[in-house]
């Protein structure tokens, strides 16, 4: 238990203000767009309530979650660390987000919740990619936010091309293995 408390205290001590700022802005926009697709059933006031709850809640929590994700970069098992970053934190955050909306009597429609869960997972994949390359980190490892933003186009390009690179590398290995087997 003391180890868990220490881990959480360390995560909060490196609260990632960069991610809090970016996440609150982007996720609120996703909610607003998803809410616009409901045809006004919840009304402008209801939509605004959902977005305001999202902004307040995400601003407070996303910095903490990103701090925990940054700590997970150091987990001995890279696979476990990546799983915590991509699935554990975002899905737990989304569950708490859902509860916050319920508690504030501003429940988000299922469509908005699913859209944000998809966005959170994709965003976490990008966040992992960027953090592994030294971007959007705080504390000793961090650089100024303007430097991170300057790197965004290259990071996005690399992130988008990463599956192509992985598939190409896998196909190349498969061809080499097949060629080696044919030589026997």
Please, could you describe this protein's structure?
With 184 residues, the protein is an all-alpha fold. The chain has two domains: 2-143, no CATH class; 144-184. The protein is 82% helix and 0% strand. It is built from six helices and no strands. The protein has helices spanning 2-13, 17-36, 43-72, 78-103, 110-132, 145-183.
Record the SSE blueprint.
Layout: H1 2-13, H2 17-36, H3 43-72, H4 78-103, H5 110-132, H6 145-183
Helix pairs in contact: 1-3, 2-3, 2-5, 3-4, 4-5
The total of beta strands comes to 0
Radius of gyration: 20 Å
Count helical runs.
6
How widely separated are the two ends? Answer: 56 Å
Sheet bearing the most strands, described? none
Total count of domains: 2
| Uncertain ranges | none
The geometry reads as globular
Strand content: under 5%
Query: Averaging pLDDT over every residue, what do you get?
Result: 80
Q: Would you tell me the structural class of the helices and strands?
A: mainly alpha
The residue fraction in helices comes out at: over 70%
Order of helices and strands: HHHHHH
Short structural summary:
This protein has two domains: 2-143, no CATH class; 144-184.
Attribute tags:
184 residues, mainly alpha, 0% strand
């Amino acid at each position: 238990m003391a180890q868990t408390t220490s881990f959480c205290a360390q995560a909060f001590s490196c609260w990632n203000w960069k991610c809090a700022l970016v996440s609150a802005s982007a996720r609120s926009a996703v909610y607003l767009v998803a809410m616009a697709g409901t045809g006004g059933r919840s009304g402008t006031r209801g939509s605004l309530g959902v977005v305001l709850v999202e902004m307040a809640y995400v601003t407070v929590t996303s910095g903490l979650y990103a701090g925990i994700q940054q700590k997970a970069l150091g987990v001995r098992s890279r696979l476990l660390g990546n799983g915590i970053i991509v699935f554990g934190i975002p899905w737990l955050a989304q569950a708490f987000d859902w509860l916050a909306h319920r508690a504030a009597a501003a429940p988000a429609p299922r469509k908005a919740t699913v859209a944000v869960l998809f966005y959170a997972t994709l965003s976490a994949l990008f966040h992992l990619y960027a953090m592994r390359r030294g971007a959007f980190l705080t504390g000793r490892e961090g650089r100024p936010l303007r430097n991170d933003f300057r790197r965004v186009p290259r990071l996005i390009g690399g992130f988008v091309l990463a599956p192509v690179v992985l598939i190409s590398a896998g196909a190349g290995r498969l061809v080499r293995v097949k060629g080696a087997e044919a030589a026997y």
